[in-house]
């Protein structure tokens, strides 16, 4: 198995474990993605969330309804448009994103324990991570 294939297999296994960690907190990939988008991009309209998540507006509406029922988001009037509302991350939603992210970082750190920091940075760059930006879940 070549290095590219080894990395591919490792990434598949790591992604599966990251999804498990979220699942333990009651988060599907779609739920975590939407909550993380709100955390890092701020309040958004349902239409803008659909664009950012690359899904249909009815899909986001259903997801927002479920997250609102769970107390993780809230809709508030859009001060710029009285006909619209903005979806905000609730304090509980913010805490859940923080907890989910911390668990995933802890898992990744356990995998990279003993690796040289330069190697970790090189792999992160190769995977497209911009470590200077804070826009990532």
Q: Can you characterise this structure?
A:
By secondary structure, the protein is mostly helical. It has one domain (3-126): Winged helix-like DNA-binding domain superfamily/Winged helix DNA-binding domain (Arc Repressor Mutant, subunit A), CATH 1.10.10. The protein has 6 helices and 2 strands, in the order H-H-H-H-E-E-H-H. Strands 1-2 form a two-stranded antiparallel sheet. Strand 1 (73-78) and strand 2 (81-89) form a beta hairpin.
CATH superfamily: Winged helix-like DNA-binding domain superfamily/Winged helix DNA-binding domain
Largest sheet: 2 strands, antiparallel
CATH topology term: Arc Repressor Mutant, subunit A
Q: Count the E strands.
A: 2
The number of helical runs is 6
- The backbone outline, from C-alpha atoms, is elongated
CATH architecture: Orthogonal Bundle
* Portion of residues within helices: 55-70%
Overall structural domain count: 1
Distance between the termini: 31 Å
- Average predicted confidence as pLDDT: 91
Helix vs. strand class: mainly alpha
Q: Which sequence of strands runs across the widest sheet?
A: 1-2
Uncertain residue segments: none
SSE series: HHHHEEHH
Rg (C-alpha, Å) = 17 Å
Explain the layout of strands and helices.
Elements: H1 3-24, H2 29-41, H3 46-53, H4 57-69, E1 73-78, E2 81-89, H5 91-112, H6 117-126
Antiparallel strand pairs: 1-2
